Every structure is written in structure tokens, then in C-alpha cells.
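Forum: Protein Structure Q&A
Topic: Joint prediction for protein chains with partners

I've read a bunch of threads here and the consensus seems to be that you should model interacting components together rather than docking separate models afterwards. I'd like to see that in practice. Below is the full input, 663 residues plus whatever partners are listed. Could one of the regulars post the assembled result?
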Amino acid sequence: MEPASHGLRESATFDRATIHAIQRAAETGIYDIRGWGAKRKLPHFDDLLLLGASMSRYPLEGYRERCDTDVVLGTRHAKHPLRLATPVTIAGMSFGALSAQAKEALGRGASEVGTSTTTGDGGMTPEERGHSKHLVHQYLPSRYGMNPDDLRAADAIEVVLGQGAKPGGGGMLLGQKITERVAGMRTLPVGIDQRSACRHPDWTGPDDLAIKILELREITDWEKPIYVKVGATRTYYDVKLAVHAGADVVVVDGMQGGTAATQDVFIEHVGIPTLAALPQAVRALQELGVHREVQLIVSGGIRSGADMAKALALGADAVAIGTAALIALGDNHPKYDAEYRELGSAAGYFDDYQDGRDPAGISTQDAELSARLDPAEAGRRLANFLRVMTMEAQTLARACGKAHLLHLEPEDLVALTIESAAMARVPLAGTNWIPGEGL
Amino acid sequence: MATLIDLAESPVRALNQALHSTAATSWRVRNPRGAHAVACGIREDHTVDVEGHVGYYCAGMNQHATVTVHGNAGTGVAENMMSGTVRVRGNASQSAGATAHGGLLVIDGDASARCGISMKGVDIVVGGSVGHMSAFMGQAGRLVVCGDAGDALGDSLYEARIYVRGTVKSLGADCVEKEMRDEHLAELAELLKAAERDEDPADFRRYGSARQLYHFKVDNTTAY
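Posted by a regular:
Agreed with the consensus. Here's the joint model:
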């Protein structure tokens, strides 16, 4: 029987997921740890629309006129800035959280379209370096696997202060994923639950960060762009401080950004949406007079060329994708539905990246499961997806009369809701009203 | 004959560029005046004598070189060192030897808080005392303290080993005193010899991880 058809009414406050969470907590005595990002409904880029050209604006011919997509990151101080063919990059995800095959596939896919991929907690693998034309190396609080040779081998360095899924939180890689290779790279015993610190061990605060960035530049002879990544919270202030600390590029990760293993309560209740963070970051850069000189990468729930175009229109120089990239590789594919169900999940719902039993061979260190993912084939799917994102964004940009994706601007946008208008600082559709800025 | 670089006349950039681009040789660095990132990122078998006090991250990520600071060192001396030897003749500030993977760090004087934080294989010998939270989350390597240790020594320790000659104000979560067996006396004697110290290994006590927090359990929540 379908309960609703018999007049039974589900509680909005105590919905089925909430009831299940209470029951699970009562049975286990431990909070839920999972992967993915925030699953709650949030104001997002879907709440914005682009204003195509008509009488007052002049469009570009969709299939004939150029709309360029290249972007240069790290122009402020680095001798060798990153030159990418498209402003969509792959966000940091660790070998350990992901299989070596998945990391290789990310490198292959990104390289095929001329963009960058990023390491994660746990260091750089030869597979990843070898298959990535542009590789950003993360410098994290744990410093697992950190060494100067890898820093020199990287194309850019990303100092990670936090991520959108858990701003202010450290990490946990559960023991089932700490294989001999992962443990060796992190100098840890095999099979233990590995903790990653939430703070860097040798600096506190933005003044120290400036000196840390100086050290990283000295070690790498000022060749590499230095990114600073923050989880979206007090974004306006964080971006200003990152610029003062000397960042070439600031990465802002909204609360929809993914994780491999974090407490559900943290994912859903800490941080702010990407849409709310992005305009704050742009305002901070503009006030410092460095918008476009210090490039801005935005991540957290980017899924399409439409999201990308809107983020660029709001002032980002590039976007980064993580969850969407994993889906492109094969995560949550319907062909694994039966196996997902054996794990208590289903295709389209699977978020147990912490568990290490991913049927798609992506968020696992199990040799048999990992072998299911063909890095070449998965890389090709990712490249396809990145191409589609880029073409979608070009389609929208041409419609707005732009000959380059980075020519999109806030004036091209309107909002569908009052919330999104207030956050994005663009007018509510059909009005001139930006909440907070008067009538 | 050592090459002389005077930081009153040349910027740190010129010093580090020279250290990065020449084959192994000897260097003297005059007038460091608390400069940051002095002699960091070396990957050759250089011998570098810094004649004065240095700021943050001196000899950071050192590989192979022998760097001696004839003065005090600021935060993060020899941070993430991979190999070689770094010696501070005076005192060191916070996070000395943080996350270092290898090599030997000797501090003749005292070290401040978080000495050896997240150490991953380095050996650290401190002639004086260390501040609170030293060897926090230490994963591998040995920390030898000839003086006293502050609060929360070895908190959340993994496999690093700690030897202290004086008093320990308090032990951190999951850090316990362990039996000093012959093999520990032998390795401690080697470390003291390498650091050119004459303390008697028999005067030290050994501390390590109880390994009770290696797996996240509900029963452990009060330990954090």
C-alpha cells in the first residue's frame, strides 16, 4: 500500500530520513560518517537565469563565431602560471580516498581537454603525475606524503585551509582504506583509522601564512602559482586575508562541495552555499583592486556548463568539480544498482565513500573493486563531460554576446528567488530589485 | 673555503637560489637578522653556517645538507626535513622539526611548543626543555629531550618514540610511559652521540603510544 494514497501524512519535520537517522543513532551510539556533500536543498545556480541577447544586446552566432575559453591562473607572482584550455578544473581528491585507477582517470580526463587536476591528502602518486598535464599539488595540515621533490614536480601548489564540506574540520580515513601502499605514503600503520589535522602544524593565522607562502616560493624558486583554498564561511574576510598573505589564486569551496568521509551533521550544518560565497569573494578582490589579478576558483556543487557560466558571470575565473567528476567516471551508475542495494544504498543515493566497498571501483582501495575501473575509459568519459560543460557554457555566453567565457558579467544574470537575488547580488527577475540594495 | 653571503647586502632569494643551483660546497651566511626561509629547500650536500638568529622555517624541507644556526631559530626550523642535519646552537621557537620525514635536528638550547609536531621519521635531540604539545600526532622518528617536557607530551601519538631525561608535566591522550629496554638504551646512546651530547641514557624515561585511539570508538570519546 502507498501510505499517502490512504490519507497518511508524513511529517515535514520528522521525515523518513530524519526518523531513520534517529533510529540509527539510537542503535549504534555513534554519529553517521559519510561521503558526498550537503544533500539538503540550498539556494544554488539553478536559482539564477542568464539574459540572452535581443534588441538591446547583440548575440554571437552559435555555431560559427568564436567564444574562447582559455584562462591563465597564477599571474600575480609565479614565473610559470598555469595556462588552461577551459576554466573548469578537477578539485583535490586524495589517493587513499580514491583508488589509484580513479586518480589516473581524473588526470587522463583533465589532460585530454587541457585542464588541471589536483592531488589530495596523502601525497602525489606517480600514476597521477604521469597522466596529468597540469597537476596542482595540495599542501594540507597533515602533510602526509609531503616532500620537496613533489612540490617541485607540481605545476601549482594549493595551500588548503579548509573545504566546503567541513570548514574547520580535519579528516578521517577509516582503517579499511589504509592499505599497505596508502599507509606507506602516509607513514602510518596499516589498517588504523587515520586522522588528518584541522590546523596546519607550523603556522597560525594569516600573518604566519604569508611567511609560509614565502617559504614555499623560496623552495620552488618562485616558479609555481600558490593557491589558497578555503571552505566557504566568512568568505569576504578569508579572501582578503588570503590575498594579503600573498596568494596567486584563491579557491572558495561552498558547502555543497564533496568529501570522502565526514560526519553528516558537519556536512549539512557548517558553511554557506557556493552561491552565497562567490559574490563575497569577488567583492573582497574588487575592494583590494586585484580582481582578475588574483584569480578566483569556485567549487561546491558545480554540475554543468550552466553552473559554470553563471559562476563566471558572477566573477569567478574558473570553477572546479569533484562530485560531478566522479559521477562522470562512473560513480552511482545504474549498472551497479544491485550491488549498491546490497550495501544498503541504491544508484543515485550512494554516498558511503568512507566505507571502501564502492562497486564502481572509485572510492575504494580494494584491489578487485578498483580493477573494475578502466582509467582510460573512465578518463574518456570525464573528458567528454568536461567538453560538454565547456560547450554548454559557450552556448550560453554566445547567447549573451560574449566572445570569451570570462566576458560574462553580473549584468547578464537575474535571480528567480529573493534569497538568490540577495546572495548573488543580482536583481530579482523582472525587477530592478536587489535585496539589501534598496528599490 | 666557504662562500660568504651577507644578508645585509643580498636578499634571501639570492642566497636560496645560489644554494639550489650549485653543487655541494660550504657556505657562510652573515647578518641573517631574523630573516625567514633562510637556507630552505636545499637538495645538495652543502654545509651552511648561519652566523646569527633566523626567523621562520630556516632549513625547511632540507635534503642532504648540514645547516648550523649559530643563534636562535624562529618557528618551524627544519620543518618537513627529509634528510641531512640541522643544528641550532641557541633556542628554537614553536613547531621545530614539524612533519619532518628524516634527518637529524639538534637544538642545543630549549625548544618551544609543538616541537616535533606530526613528525614522520626525523630524529630530534633537544639539549634543554620542550614546550607543550610536543610530538603531537607524531607518526615516526625519535624525540629526545635532555631537559623537561611541558603539558600534553605525545598527544594522539602514533609510532614516534620519545625519551625525556627530566620531568614531564603531563602526558597527552594515548601517550604512556614504557619500559626502557636494552634496544632503547642503545638507540638513545646513538642519538645522543650523533647530537654530540654526553648525557647518560640510563637517566632517561621512554614514552610512546598506548595505541588505544587507533580506531575510532564510541568508548574513546571522553579521551579526545
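Chain B has one domain: 3-223.
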